[in-house]
Amino acid sequence: MAIPVMKPLLGEEEAQAVAEAVRSGWVAQGPRVAAFEEAFAARVGAAHGVAVSNCTTALHLCLHLLGIGPGDEVVVPSLSFIATANSVRHCGGTPVFAEVDPLTGNLTAESVAAALTPATKAVMVVHQGGVPADVAAIRAVAGAVPVVEDAACAAGSTLDGAPVGSGALLAAWSFHPRKLLTTGEGGMVTTDDAEWAARLRRLREHGMNVSAADRHAAGGAVIESYVETAFNYRMTDIQAAMGLVQLRRLDGMVAQRRELAARYHELLAPAGLRAVTDPAHGTTNYQSFWVALPEGAPAQADVLAALAADGVSARRGIMAAHLEPAYAGHPHPPLPVTEELATRSLILPLHHELTEADQRTVVDSLVRALELVSP
Fold first, then answer.
1. Burial class (CB in 10 A: 0-12, 13-18, 19+), 181
2. Of 247, 274, 305, which residue constitutes the final position of a domain?
3. Cα–chain-centroid distance for residue 179?
4. At 32, is the secondary structure helix, strand, or coil?
5. Nearest Cα to 107, choosing from 82, 83, 141, 63?
6. pLDDT (tens digit, 9 = 90+) per residue, 288-322?
7. How many Cα atoms occupy the beta-carbon half-sphere of 100 within 13 Å?
8. Is the domain of 243 the same as that of 257?
């Protein structure tokens, strides 16, 4: 495609950092992972960071830590990448789908309250596409039920004047190339609880009471023990080396994406197309820039095909898990807003190489597609 939907911001600094990690001989989880954990946690306002292999394993560890198991319900949005709901199933629990707000695509206090039952053991709030959810309001209705934040897309977003992740009980992050900050693959759990962080570090490394890095640093014979059945969810020092460079770029990336998003809003306004924007309680990093198709517009697939014919790569709106075959027959309440956003919205190109001319091409192509394909 002439205009890709996304492109990670990677340069010579990342290449050099990765090469240095390789030359060091320490390529598995080690000192660079520890440095990345500390730096990332500080950036999002958390006391502790625990790096893992990806955000799906981060979500799984959060729920495992909370003891989610068979018979337990976890309130989640269906409007999210399927890993959100899958992480509940990985623990043997039952995802309970709740409705989202049409403007933000996020769970609301009202929709969470309607989904709570005596079997609810956790609520998983997604900051969808980088748009911060109103976590304070959701915590208020959840009461004693723990709230986990799926912050996969939200590095650099703010909530109530602080970084998303600040004050979170548990937050899970993604460093996939579709995200602003990437390590190729990779994830993180952040928390303010020191005991939880220590257990998370054991859980990601087979339940060992002493990590491989700590055994090496001890300089003598250390015999580890395995204190519980756990997992292999480690990040490598190669990935962390890239992450440390990417973290230094984060503020600049967010600023640029917000400038590009502001231009999209200006270009889309004359066409009367509604697009994602900041909620009242925070700011988005615009990890994704989605636009809602107007009433009477052609099908999502037809518009995507018309854009592709013009060399513009776009994507369908954020998926709805309950519409996928993996969740066929899974009970859920009516989810009209979720289904509307999933089937009647598009994600437009947004990345660091996008020019003003590119954005005009995208918008012109979109408007033309709506006119040409319309009956």
1. buried
2. 247
3. 7
4. helix
5. 141
6. 999 999 999 999 999 999 999 999 999 999 999 99
7. 28
8. no
Q: How far apart are CA 37 and CA 26, in angstroms?
A: 17
What type of residue sits at position 7? K
Phi, psi of 348 (to 5 degrees): -95, 160
Amino acid symbol at 325? P
Catalytic residue of the set 48, 127, 176, 179: 179
Cβ neighbors of 294 (< 8 A, separation 6 or more) are: 272, 273, 274, 370
> Cβ-count burial of 178 within 10 angstroms (0-12 exposed, 13-18 middle, 19+ buried)?
middle
DSSP summary character for residue 271: G
Distance between CA atoms of residues 353 and 357, nearest Å: 11
SS3 275: strand
Active-site residue, 7 included: no
How far is Cα 238 from Cα 212, in angstroms, rounded to an integer? 16
How many domains does one find in the chain? 2
**Together in a domain, 80 and 116:** yes
CA distance 61 to 90: 10
> Coil, strand or helix: which one is 290?
strand
Domain assignment of residue 294, given as a range: 250-373
Q: Note the pLDDT tens digit of each residue in 254-291.
A: 999 999 999 999 999 999 999 999 999 999 999 999 99
**Residue 374, number of CB atoms within 10 A of its CB:** 12
